[in-house]
Amino acid sequence: MAAGSARYVRYILFAFFVLAVFYFVSSSDNIEPFKGQFKPNGAHHETPSKPAPASTHDSAATPEKPKQAPKVGADLNPADFPMAMTPNDPGWNDLAGIKDGPRVNATFVTLARNSDIWDIAKSIRQVEDRFNRRYNYDWVFLNDKPFDATFKKVTTSLCSGKTHYGEIPREHWSFPEHIDQNKAKKVREDMAQRKIIYGDSISYRHMCRFESGFFFRQPLMMNYEYYWRVEPSIELYCDIHYDPFRFMKENNKKYSFVLSLYEYIETIPTLWDSVKKFMKNHPEHIAEGNSMGFLSDDGGDSYNKCHFWSNFEIGSLEWLRSKAYTDYFEALDQDGGFFYERWGDAPVHSIAAGLMLKKEELHFFNDIAYFHVPFTHCPTGEKTRQQLKCHCNPKENFDWKGYSCTSRFFEVNGLEKPEGWENQQD
Ligand SMILES: Nc1nc2c(ncn2[C@@H]2O[C@H](COP(=O)(O)OP(=O)(O)OP(=O)(O)O)[C@@H](O)[C@H]2O)c(=O)[nH]1
Ligand SMILES: *[C@@H]1O[C@H](CO)[C@@H](O)[C@H](O)[C@H]1NC(C)=O
Ligand SMILES: [Mg+2]
């Protein structure tokens, strides 16, 4: 008898269990937050071709909008897709969804360590929010060591375009053979004593030499014609309404900047001597109608230390890969100043752009608002800042202050300074 009733209890419990399983299986489809969360997600760090993010609620109003960014080299005539450069141009307010029109053969590029992950994550997020979510340009990451899984996973999840990860070969991140190690070591010790920033650092010197002479010829970079350099912990303060890559290409610009200033002379005491030697040996590389007036106050005899701040750059990779630029880098590298002094890639790039490009091939992006510690470029002109939905403090704009070279750039090029610049001089 006891055994019989225990069997009934077992039957009933079993029936309940089956019902409970049925219930969970049929209702779990509706529990949205759980969906996808447990999806295996193994391929994140390769370079998946991701579906473009769907456009937001306005997609019904403009059904012709592409869901995926047009491919580089697609047969689209730029003239059929004029860019809205000012608020009066059609399409200015259209900041939702994927932008139609041609794409330039271009990429973002970042040199970083694995430990830079959260600082570069912040930069990427801003670049995506203010610009790239509508364009989906690729992003190349370079490192002297292998990138780890976290770095790849986090950056790939933030980038709207394809991501690529490259390891820098040793020859591009080490002392060239002709460098006298003892002499280089003495310089570092001396600079440490004189408290020159990064003066005692070997890796900082490799970084500057790499950015000066090698980033543009890494195998991954050979796939592109234009680059936009992004460093960790930068800010972009305003919406970018048009494609700066297209602007560069269609206006035949080769190098651009947002901030300029005077270089710390202790880091480059003999750089200009090397440059003068190069100019003498290679007159064929010096452009007619160049920007010597930006670099020198005495027609080239001495350097005034003005340079474009290279932690932001949009530029032509074809130009950096040209014979002119590579001969120039080769000449400087032979002279050893990356190690016997502490030459930065900013003056190295700037002097090259100033001497080997025509004036008109350089561009100042007033409308790209930017911060890298400790300087801010906040567009001049209240109207501009409102139109671009900027969140920078105009008082912090460095452009017209005493230590900036941007005024000089305007004067050398006969450009009219933006309205309101006089009130921002201190
Ligand atoms: N892989 C790698 N990247 C580096 C190394 N040193 C610097 N970088 C990167 O090179 C760029 C410039 O280095 P920073 O340390 O930002 O130098 P900086 O901008 O002159 O100085 P900060 O004011 O410190 O930003 C950044 O994108 C760094 O992430 C390094 O040893 N290895
Ligand atoms: C992009 O530029 C690179 C370098 O010049 C070139 O090899 C490649 O074919 C170009 N890609 C397209 C799609 O035009
Ligand atoms: Mg930096």
Question: What does this entry show, briefly?
Answer:
This protein has 426 residues and is of the alpha/beta class. It has helices at 2-28, 117-130, 149-158, 181-193, 202-213, 244-250, 271-281, 292-295, 317-320, 323-335, 337-340, 345-356, 382-387, 406-412; strands at 106-111, 138-143, 163-167, 226-229, 235-236, 255-257, 260-262, 306-308, 313-316, 362-364, 370-372, 375-377. The longest helix has 27 residues, at 2-28.
The major pleated sheet works out as:
7 strands, mixed
Whole-number average pLDDT? 90
Classify the secondary structure makeup into a structural class. alpha/beta
| Portion of residues within helices | 25-40%
Number of helices: 14
In total, the number of strands is 12
Task: Choose one word for the global shape.
Answer: globular
Bound molecules: guanosine-5'-triphosphate, 2-acetamido-2-deoxy-beta-D-glucopyranose, magnesium ion
Keywords for this entry:
34% helix; seven-stranded mixed beta sheet; three-stranded antiparallel beta sheet; binds 2-acetamido-2-deoxy-beta-D-glucopyranose; binds magnesium ion; binds guanosine-5'-triphosphate; alpha/beta; 426 residues
Q: Could you walk me through the main structural features you see in this protein, from its secondary elements to its overall organization?
A:
Keywords: Glycosyltransferase, Transferase. InterPro entries: Glyco_trans_15, Nucleotide-diphossugar_trans. This protein has helices spanning 2-28, 117-130, 149-158, 181-193, 202-213, 244-250, 271-281, 292-295, 317-320, 323-335, 337-340, 345-356, 382-387, 406-412; strands spanning 106-111, 138-143, 163-167, 226-229, 235-236, 255-257, 260-262, 306-308, 313-316, 362-364, 370-372, 375-377. The chain has 426 residues and is an alpha/beta fold. Strands 3-2-1-4-9-6-10 form a seven-stranded mixed beta sheet. It has a three-stranded antiparallel beta sheet with strand order 5-11-12. The protein is globular, with a radius of gyration of 27 Å. Mean pLDDT is 90; it is low at 27-60. Guanosine-5'-triphosphate is lined by residues 111-113, 116, 143-144, 203, 207, 231-232, 311, 373.
